[in-house]
């Protein structure tokens, strides 16, 4: 998730001065890490923990198959559309304050969704959750960056944070299965309330305030153009994926055209704005721009794993929600273990070899999944692919998060981190729409070509197409990384801008 991490050289303060030699580290820093990590885990869990509960929520509230996606899309629209603003707000008003406001708002929105009597209130609550997550997420990692001043300790702290960011989604599938199966789908939202309350209580005591120095004026036109543009883009792709709508529908075309106009206008405005929301120097740098594109494509590709493997486990193999969650546990473990290994290798070999190798491994794992059948054995035909993809993505998350801050000024660190996470969120939303469209087309085509065949075989063909396109997204990311990322190990900032 996003980070407003500082990029001052090791051993200096954000103002560029050398601190006193007797400056002792915060004795409560490891407790603060636990508090911040819990908040990060809550954000990362929130998409996947709700995914498992979608069928139950839809049945309870009478949500149609066409509209059920809005439980997820409302969250990602608000989250992705407002992350740039959230990064700036956290920088300007103070990261601890933003952290506490984000936690309180996220908990309140979760409670509202948990008691929602109809689909309209549930969708609104999910959008509100996304808005507060866009404030909470940038504040969380930036607080971590300023809490740990020793380089070795910081690396360990970010390793923990990276493992949570990468593996949390799979853990959410297990938690969602437990809550849905033994309590109610409503608890997949309600569980956030006590967690957030306890986290806030500890954060007040353990977390220290920090904020960006220098100019702190907001770019209101930039906020409106970027937010509306991103929302129109994701909404347009989501409409295209809806049954009976498609890419040629006037609504879809209108939304995509509006997105193009708004985002082009945003870029043109930012070129001449005196206090831009997104200084173009942040994204035009070769290493940073390459990192953003890599995360956009990885975000799109990773949905092929979570969405369609969930379908495969439950619809094809007959797993319960809880069993499906546990089937993802090796993926989560691979991310956590892989992040620890990569954190040790990064200072020795630099980012590019790790990113390229990781994407290559992830592509192979995704292609492996195109071989699964309705009678495949989990241990021999799904598990190896999960492990390959998880270790591959761990080798991408950690170094690409670091290259996203190569050479960035301290005042721009928050927005540089927010762009990274916006790329991943928008990529995930676009990937959800595109892969759902490809999947549906493959299923429909297979049924038309094979009349009388069991629908289960058509579903498997749809999974194959989705996994193949997921591999294509990751392969394009590999090419971009190989061409654009040239940073050496000595170029990396002291702390990365983790995405999750």
State the gist of this model.
With 500 residues, the chain is mainly alpha-helical.
Task: Examine the coordinates and then state which fold CATH places here, giving the name of the CATH topology of the largest domain.
Answer: Growth Hormone, Chain: A
Instruction: Give a short account of the largest sheet.
Output: none
Number of strands: 0
Secondary-structure-based class equals mainly alpha
Name of the CATH homologous superfamily of the largest domain: MFS general substrate transporter like domains
What is the succession of H and E elements?
HHHHHHHHHHHHHHHHHH
In the CATH scheme, the class of the largest domain would be Mainly Alpha
**Can you tell me the CATH architecture of the largest domain?**
Up-down Bundle
Overview of the structural elements:
The protein has 500 residues and is an all-alpha fold. The protein folds into three domains: 189 residues, Up-down Bundle (Growth Hormone, Chain: A); 58 residues; 220 residues, Growth Hormone, Chain: A (Up-down Bundle), CATH 1.20.1250.20. Helices cover 75% and strands 0% of the residues. The chain contains 18 helices and no strands. Helix 4 runs antiparallel to helix 8 and helix 5 packs antiparallel against helix 6. The longest helix is centred in the C-terminal third of the chain and has 37 residues. The N terminus is likely disordered. One of its GO terms (cellular component) is plasma membrane. This is Drug resistance protein.
């Amino acid at each position: 998730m996003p980070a407003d991490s500082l990029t001052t050289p090791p051993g200096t303060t954000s103002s560029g001065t050398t601190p006193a030699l007797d400056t002792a580290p915060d004795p409560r820093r490891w407790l603060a890490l636990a508090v911040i990590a819990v908040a990060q885990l809550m954000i990362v869990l929130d998409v996947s923990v709700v995914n498992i509960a979608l069928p139950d929520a839809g049945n309870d509230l009478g949500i149609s198959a066409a509209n059920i996606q809005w439980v997820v899309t409302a969250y990602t629209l608000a989250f992705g559309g407002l992350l740039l603003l959230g990064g700036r707000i956290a920088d300007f008003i103070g990261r601890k304050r933003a952290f506490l406001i984000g936690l309180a708002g996220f908990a309140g929105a979760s409670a509202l969704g948990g008691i929602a009597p109809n689909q309209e209130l549930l969708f609104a609550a999910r959008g509100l959750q996304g808005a507060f997550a866009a404030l909470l997420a940038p504040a969380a990692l930036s607080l971590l960056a300023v809490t740990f001043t020793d380089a070795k300790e910081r690396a360990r702290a970010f390793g923990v944070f990276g493992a949570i960011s990468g593996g949390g989604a799979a853990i959410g599938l297990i938690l969602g299965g437990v809550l849905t199966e033994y309590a109610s789908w409503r608890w997949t939202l309600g569980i956030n309330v006590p967690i957030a309350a306890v986290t806030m209580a500890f954060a007040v005591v353990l977390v220290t305030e920090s904020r960006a120095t220098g100019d702190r004026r907001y770019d209101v036109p930039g906020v409106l153009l970027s937010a509306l543009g991103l929302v129109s883009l994701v909404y347009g792709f989501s409409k295209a994926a809806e049954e009976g709508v498609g890419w040629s529908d006037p609504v879809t075309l209108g939304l995509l055209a509006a997105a193009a106009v708004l985002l082009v206008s945003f870029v043109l405005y930012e070129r001449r704005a005196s206090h831009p929301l997104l200084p173009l120097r942040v994204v035009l740098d070769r290493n940073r721009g390459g990192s953003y594109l890599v995360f956009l494509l990885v975000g799109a590709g990773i949905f092929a794993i979570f969405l369609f493997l969930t379908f495969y486990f439950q619809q094809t193999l007959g797993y319960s929600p809880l069993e499906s969650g546990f089937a993802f546990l090796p993926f989560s473990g691979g991310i956590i273990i892989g992040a620890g290994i990569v954190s040790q290798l990064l200072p020795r070999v630099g980012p590019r070899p790790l990113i390229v190798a990781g994407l290559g491994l992830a592509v192979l794992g995704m292609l492996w999944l195109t071989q699964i059948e309705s009678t495949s054995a989990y241990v021999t035909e799904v598990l190896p692919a999960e492990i390959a993809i998880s270790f591959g993505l761990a080798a991408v998350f950690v170094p690409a998060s670091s290259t996203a801050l190569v050479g960035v000024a301290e005042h721009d660190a928050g927005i540089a981190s927010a762009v990274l996470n916006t790329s991943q969120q928008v990529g995930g939303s676009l990937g959800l729409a595109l892969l759902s469209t490809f999947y549906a087309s493959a299923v429909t085509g297979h049924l038309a070509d094979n009349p009388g065949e069991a629908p289960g075989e058509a579903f498997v063909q749809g999974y194959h197409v989705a996994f193949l396109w997921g591999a294509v997204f990751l392969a394009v990311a590999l090419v971009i990384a190989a061409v654009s990322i040239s940073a050496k190990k000595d170029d990396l900032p002291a702390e990365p801008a983790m995405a999750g």
